[in-house]
Every structure is written in C-alpha cells, then in structure tokens.
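Hi R.,

Here's the chain you asked about this morning:
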Amino acid sequence: MVGRQARRPAAYYLAAIPFVVALLFPFYWMVVTSLKQNAELYDLKAIPFWFRSSPTLEHYMFLFERTAFATWMVNTAVVAVLSTAIAVVISILAAYALARLRFRGGETLGGMIFAVYLVPTTLLFIPLSQIIRILNLGDTRWSLVVSYPTFLVPFATWLLMSYFRTIPKELEESALIDGCSYLGALVRIILPTAIPGVLTATLFAFTLSWNEFIYAVTFVSSTAQKTLGPGVVTELIRGDVYYWGELMAGAVLGSVPIAVIYAFLLDYYISGLTAGAIK
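And here is the predicted structure, written out as tokens:
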C-alpha cells in the first residue's frame, strides 16, 4: 500500500515531463541562440542545441548600444500598465452590473460583450484609426493605450462576471442592509472577496497588452514610440538580412517580465479561472 502511494507521485511527474519539455524547449532555443557567436549561428556544421564556441553577450550589448531597445521596453511597460488599468476598472464596473443588478436586456448585453471579443482585430483598423486621428494621437504610444481596451474589456468583463456570480449574495445584501450603496458594497465586500478573479483578469489583460503586435505595428511607426514587438522585428529584420542573435536576445528579454509575474501570481491565476469555470 505504501509502495503504491509512493509510486503515484512519480507517475504524475513522468506524465508531465513531455509537456514540460515541449513548453520549455522554445525558450531554451532562444537562450542558446542569443548566446552564440555569429560565426557559429551561420555554420551549418555547428550543433544547433549547444555551444561549440564559448558563449557571448555581444547580441545583448548590440540591443542596448545600437538600437532603442531600452526605449521600446519602457514604451511597452507604459502601454501595458495603463491599458490594463483602464480595462480592469471598466470591466469591474461592467461585470458587477451585469452579474448583480437586474435590468431589462442584461443577459443580451452580456452576450453581446463577449461576442465583441470574437471580432477579429483586423476588422477594427478603420474605425480605430479614425478615432485616433480625431484625438490627434497618431504615431504615438498613447494611440495604443486608447485602442487596447477595445479587445481587453470584453473578455475581462466576461471573466469577472463568472467570478462575481460565485460570491454569495448574502454578503452583499448584508452590506446593503447596513447602509452601503451598491458602489460601496462593490468596493468593501465584493472586490476583497474577488481578488483572485481580479488578478486573473489583470494578468490576462497585461499579457495581451505586452505581446500585442498588430495594432502596435499599424498605429506607430516612429522608432522612439515603438513597443517591444514591432521595434525588435522592424529594426532587426532589414530586407533579407535577419539578425538572429539579436532577435533571440530581444525575445528572451521581452519574455522575462511576463515569466516573473506568472511565477509569483500563478496560484491566483489558476484560482480565478477555475472559480468561474465550476460555477
């Protein structure tokens, strides 16, 4: 009996190994490629999975010394933080109203919000470009802060609706009996209880904003205003010349903030997703 219990965790780990290897291999490939010397990168006889020559940091130095990589990182962080904050605030208010308040057309409105999330972003170029032109935000990072909530709010609202519905109504009703308004009940009762759901929506929105590419490459063209993805791709691919070492170094550095955030908040993320799923 004891031996069977001891073998069960080992079986779980063995079953997980293929998935772990498949998920980590792209990151491993990026790291190895970013540390190889150029002569080894273009040598067809070199070992693709390991180093034949000593590793080098020249590709990372190239990024910071000969490109605007640091500016792209700052722009990406500013755009991701601001657009996430705007989207989460709007989503909390919308989700609370749709999940708790009873009014005509509420269910239909909830379905329409999720349907908006399914609209391809490429279909929104023309109306968004007109709005950005009217606001005089063309070719600035602020155009992305305005445009990103259009695809962040629908899914975050739907996710928070599911989570808010898992919270017992008695908690909110007690607050209303004690004199709280609906807004007061939301701030003092619902939000502290829904922290895993709010963090999940925040992580989701931040990840999408950090990795977004299509709007960023369409609405911004100045090097000083670019975000990380378009900056690395457009500045390090010149015609048919690919700076593979620098491209991989940029990909590694761009992945680090997301990996660190998920490493610390993964439990909240899973809790927020599963709470809405099992309702």
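One quick note: The mean pLDDT is 86.

Cheers,
M.
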